[in-house]
């Protein structure tokens, strides 16, 4: 064990564990109402083995009567005993549970930072040591060609400690969205680059002087969705690894980032961008777009477009039409947000390897990666929730006719992030029901819109502690100056050099040294 778990086990952990007790192998009753039975002594061929799970509740509230949930247990000869935690508080609770002496057999929905930190403590099972017992997972990693991205989830010892959630391919689920009806009305072409976007925004402002054509919700969201076109995303906490030099660079002092700020500042100064570009909530965003106060933004697409079009037709008239666009090209070219395909995963405590039902546990999690298991957890039950015609799946009428297909799936236990570990593209495209999303996703993969994920440095526990000491101060100063530069409270021309000097002094130089050392 490289470092002791006690480094971050605090008294707080004990109090929180009291608040959310585990029922693992206790014979107690969980929130779902089922009574857990000890799995000790269970042998192959016996009745259902009870496996405990920390479950993140999002979407629809958990229901033990979900047909998909019941079918999953029946097919795998497993009884699941769930400790249910609200999604909003899940990551902190997961970390606390994993640092306790009452760890369930599976902890789902763990994010990357927690996996990497915990991988160095010795509390997690090294999944990579058991790939011979996880044939379906191994097959899907190869089939999805996701090995390079999976490397970012390995700890400094080179081992993988997570059962990854994986999307089949990078998809165009966030994009620029524009008032297509106004483009037609004003005789404008859809913008393809920053210069053309400026021209379009200028014309929209001219036609409606009281509007702010470009709006948004936050600085981080905008940068995540558009930063790749400026060469500043994807990054790891502001740092990008350069293969040609074998070193990291800090992107928020780069010339491309300076150009990005300069462009946004120009839009603000000329009234082409919303003064609340970085501060609107989603309801405010929808109000501005649907009433014609703004006409362009970067956001989730798919269902978002159908929803905003309904609002817009109610608030602005039947001609209202928002449509997604291909990426707006910048200095780095026509690039969409990162093609990241792994967002979370399930971890197993190392202690599980000593349990008599360990092989059944591995068989259960491997079933989640099988074609049969994935069909169940995405499409549902054949001839009930979906049918196959000429080798193609489609949902049955009882789901297709529901008011919200995504919610209808949640309500039967499908598309559940604690169980569903594979996200097939065609299935997700069917749920969204947006032909542009499907078309642009395929086009984006063909034309390399999606930039590779940022390389994550493999830090030791000591290096990670040193990183934690300085990163907050760097990020606070970066965020403060980003806002000041964009809104003109600080001059990019006059104060850029002092900004660079100050942020380097706050620890950027120190982190560059740490990250470069991690590559040796």
UniProtKB/TrEMBL annotation:
This protein's UniProt keywords: Cell membrane, Lipoprotein, Membrane, Palmitate, Signal
Claim: Lipoprotein is one of the keywords in the record: yes
Origin: domain of life: Bacteria
Signal peptide residue numbers: 1-24
Entry-linked Pfam families: SBP_bac_1
Protein name: ABC transporter substrate-binding protein
Organism: Paenibacillus beijingensis
């Amino acid at each position: 064990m490289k470092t002791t778990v006690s480094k971050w086990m605090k008294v707080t952990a004990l109090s929180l564990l009291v608040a959310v007790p585990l029922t693992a192998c206790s014979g107690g009753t969980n929130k779902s109402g089922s009574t857990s039975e000890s799995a000790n002594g269970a042998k192959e061929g016996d009745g259902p083995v009870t496996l405990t799970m920390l479950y993140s509740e999002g979407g629809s509230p958990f229901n033990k009567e979900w047909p998909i949930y019941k079918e999953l247990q029946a097919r795998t000869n497993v009884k699941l005993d769930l400790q249910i935690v609200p999604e909003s508080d899940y990551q902190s609770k997961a970390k606390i549970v994993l640092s306790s002496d009452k760890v369930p057999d599976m902890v789902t929905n763990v994010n990357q930072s927690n996996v990497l930190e915990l991988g160095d403590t010795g509390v997690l099972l090294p999944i990579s040591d058991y790939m011979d017992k996880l044939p379906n997972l191994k097959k899907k990693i190869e089939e999805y060609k996701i090995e390079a991205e999976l490397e970012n989830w390995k700890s400094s010892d080179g081992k993988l400690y997570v059962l990854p959630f994986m999307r089949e391919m990078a998809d165009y689920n966030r994009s620029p969205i524009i008032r297509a009806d106004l483009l037609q009305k004003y005789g404008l072409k859809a913008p393809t680059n920053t210069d053309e976007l400026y021209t379009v925004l200028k014309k929209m402002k001219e036609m409606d002087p009281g509007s702010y054509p470009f709006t948004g919700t936050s600085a981080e969201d905008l940068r995540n969705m558009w930063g790749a076109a400026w060469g500043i995303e994807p990054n790891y906490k502001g740092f990008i690894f350069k293969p040609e030099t074998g070193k990291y660079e800090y992107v928020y002092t780069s010339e491309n980032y300076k150009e990005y700020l300069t462009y946004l500042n120009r839009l603000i100064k000329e009234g082409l961008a919303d003064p609340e570009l970085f501060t609107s909530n989603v309801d405010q965003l929808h109000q501005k777009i649907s009433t014609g106060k703004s006409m362009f933004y970067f956001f989730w697409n798919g269902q978002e477009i159908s929803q905003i079009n309904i609002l817009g037709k109610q608030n602005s008239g039947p001609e209202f039409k928002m449509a997604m666009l291909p990426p707006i090209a910048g200095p780095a070219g026509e690039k969409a947000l990162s093609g990241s395909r792994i967002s979370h995963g399930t971890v197993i405590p190392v202690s599980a390897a000593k349990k008599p039902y360990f092989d059944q546990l591995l068989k259960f999690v491997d079933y989640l990666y099988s074609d049969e298991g994935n069909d169940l957890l995405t499409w549902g039950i054949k001839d009930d929730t979906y049918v196959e015609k000429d080798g193609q799946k489609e949902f049955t009428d009882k789901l297709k006719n529901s008011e919200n297909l995504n919610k209808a799936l949640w309500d039967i236990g499908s598309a559940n992030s604690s169980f569903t570990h594979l996200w097939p593209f065609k299935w997700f495209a069917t749920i969204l029901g947006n032909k542009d999303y499907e078309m642009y996703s395929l086009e984006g993969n063909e034309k390399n819109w999606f930039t590779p994920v940022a390389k994550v440095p493999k830090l030791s526990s000591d290096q990670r502690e040193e990183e934690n000491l300085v990163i907050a101060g760097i990020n606070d100063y970066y965020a403060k100056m980003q806002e000041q530069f964009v809104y003109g409270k600080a001059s990019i021309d006059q104060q850029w050099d002092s900004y660079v000097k100050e942020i380097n002094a706050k620890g950027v130089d120190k982190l560059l040294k740490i990250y470069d050392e991690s590559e040796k």
